[in-house]
Amino acid sequence: MSLVRRCSRSACSRQAVATLTYVYADSTAVLGPLATFAEPHCYDLCAEHSERLTAPRGWQIVRLSPPETGRRAPSTDDLEALANAVREAARAPAPAPAPPAEAPNRVVHQGDRPPRRGHLRPVDDSDGTAFTANR
User: Fold this and answer.
1) C-alpha angle 76/80/84, rounded to 5°?
2) What's the predicted TM-score (pTM) here?
């Protein structure tokens, strides 16, 4: 196994120098220095492909380059935007609101909702409501 990571672009065998990640919630592509470890949802790019990178319409690219390339170092605004994007992506989705409570004596008939295969459904029972497997 080779210790040198290669460009993720098909038919490119050059050495990777940058890592591309996407923040879908913000429609942002983040191109930075080569990550320490290869991640499954990141793309390693060679110098040529990282320079020619474009984003889809409506997306923005945040380029974080290492100081030794001669390009500008990331500003504090770039780093703060990246940190905020990572925090937003890591934030758990808000729980869905609980459905309104139904009347306790209401009987759900099969015509009210389509049955879901393999799930439980309420049926009218003389002792109360019982649950059976829907087949």
Assistant:
1) 175
2) 0.48
